[in-house]
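Changelog excerpt

This revision adds worked examples to the README so contributors can see how folded entries look when concatenated. The first example is reproduced verbatim below.
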Amino acid sequence: MTPRTALGALHIGALMFGLTGVFGKLAAASPTIIVFGRAAFAVLALAFFARFASNTRWQKLEAVDWRRLLLSGLLLAGHWVSFFVAVKVAGVAIATLGFASFPAFTVILEGLIFRERIRANEIVLVTLVSIGLVLVTPDFDLASGATTGLLWAIASGLLFSLLSLANRASSARIAPVQAALCQNVVVALCLLPMAAPQLSEVRALDWLWIALLGVFCTGVAHSLFVASLAVIKARTAAVVFALEPVYGITIAWLLFNEQPTLRMLLGGALIIVAIVVSSRFAGGSSKKAVAVEAASH
């Protein structure tokens, strides 16, 4: 794979990640069903990729690895469910921008958990994201669906931040595809008891959207990221990943007529700039950490 091809694959992967909220909106099923189905189809797609990817090496997992994967799988399930609740309540644009607040949570949590000093550029990041979220919020009435949806989306960003920290702790030992596959197995098994009574009521068309969500927005998108990282720097991949909200909001605008207001666009621009700046300064992120993080959304 040439650098140009790898960069193209990264953008296609980011576009597929951006379609996550769109497919969630199209599927009339509950968030529990959507997440269960997404994880189940993702397991199949990732297993297929691992079977035919010659450079995929499986690590023998120890007890500590299983504990970390169980924890990260539970965080992933909570992250996805809260994100799709936000999509159902407030729409794709607000859900995507609320979730995009996760870099600010990562900065704060790293400082609290690892006792790291917060740098000046990270303070700017948190400030930009905070201002962006205020602008994105149409009003501050908790009875409003948009405000409630944004809160769910912010909760999704918080859980994703915790998931990213958990993934980085184990990314040195476990291959990205192996970690993503195991995490999706945990998600599917956790949600199966709640999803099982509703499975017979899911329409065939909804299964199509859920299958596309699991195969393309998780399995294929993650596989493209993993393949591209053999050529592209982790920092470059993280910046491309930051374009996910742009793709998602644009497609939702075209499909659902979710026309963002000028205030929302300004807030979204601040959040996306913050993500890009965060990615440029994240020189210590490994390729494995970026690949596993990308698979989590």
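The second example, added in the same revision:
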Amino acid sequence: MFDFAGKYARVALVAAAGLMVTVFAVPASANHVAGNLEELDHGARLVIPMMSPDRGKDLFVDKGCIACHAINGVGGHDAPAMDAHRDMGLVNPFDLAAKMWNHAPGMIAAQQAAFGEQIYFTGEELADIIAFLHNHEAQHGFSEADLTAEARAKMHHDHGGAKAVDAHAKEVGHSH
């Protein structure tokens, strides 16, 4: 008798392995891939960028994330702290992207009120920030010395006379 279930399980396993090879065999930089698309397999075209917690730390400060979120107690307190010092186990980087997406209206409103404009990210920038936010070692040494003058100015944005937590309570979901 022919084993259909076994045959399909083997086909699925081979297909999954092929997808893994296709996804991870692609060069990590989207800029590098752009000129070589004709050389790629016609399967999945996912690019998983090389994530750098060091670049992420710089971006977290330079983009102004530090104005509202603290690391090691350094930074703003308008929004939740982003410390990786607790045991998080394995982290799916897309979960943070989904959380940001779900909170986008409030974060954009806060950015426009504080900075006069929305903050924009490329995929690689967001990947680096995610790497920083989920790397205990990269965050462990983060201190006031990592702040730029521009970041310090952004941290002291106007809240219309209200305390920062009260001014942004509805946007960040911690109203009392």
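Reviewer comment on example two: The first helix runs from residue 4 to 25. The radius of gyration is 21 Å.
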